[in-house]
Design goal:
about 15% strand, about 160 residues, single chain, 3 helices, four-stranded antiparallel β-sheet, alpha+beta
């Protein structure tokens, strides 16, 4: 007859090693989610700038339609001046519209500036800004991270 009168009990529960492995797996998953969140924030920031560029281009197109006579005489044509919030709002109606628009671009978008081209009644409004903060993938050091948005319409 055995010396022990009660049978062996099977051990239950998690061992310390199993708990540590579960914590490591959970930590890796949470790090992945944090990386996705950072990418999402960058994408949303870039999308915000693109939305602002769309609104500002539409605003200028409406100004040009309201002043169609000057718009048809190339009074609105410009080519990417340096970004500045101190453009003088004086002169003709077209010069005032352009100066106000360029000031808005510089205030709303980082290094924001614009270009207006006209071919007959077809107008192309291009807006350029520095989108360094919105870049998701790292690129070469020589890349300027400029983003350009083009808006084409008829006046």
């Amino acid at each position: 007859m055995p010396m022990f009168s009660h049978p062996f009990r099977k051990e239950t529960g998690a061992t310390l090693i199993e708990v540590l492995v579960a914590m490591v797996v959970l930590a890796i998953g949470l790090l992945g989610l944090a990386g996705l969140q950072a990418t999402s924030i960058q994408s949303n920031h870039s999308a915000y700038y693109r939305s602002q560029a769309t609104l500002l281009a539409s605003d200028l197109a409406d100004r040009m339609r309201a002043n169609r006579t000057e718009a048809l005489t190339n009074a609105y044509v410009i080519d990417f001046p340096t970004s500045s919030t101190s453009n003088s709002v004086t002169g003709t109606s077209a010069e005032k519209d352009i100066a106000e628009w360029l000031n808005q671009l510089a205030q709303t978008l980082p290094e924001g500036t614009g270009k207006i081209e006209k071919d007959g009644t077809l107008v192309t409004i291009s807006i350029r800004w520095n989108d360094t903060r919105g870049q998701i993938k790292a690129s070469g050091d020589n890349d300027t991270h400029n983003e350009t948005f083009a808006y084409r319409t008829e006046i």
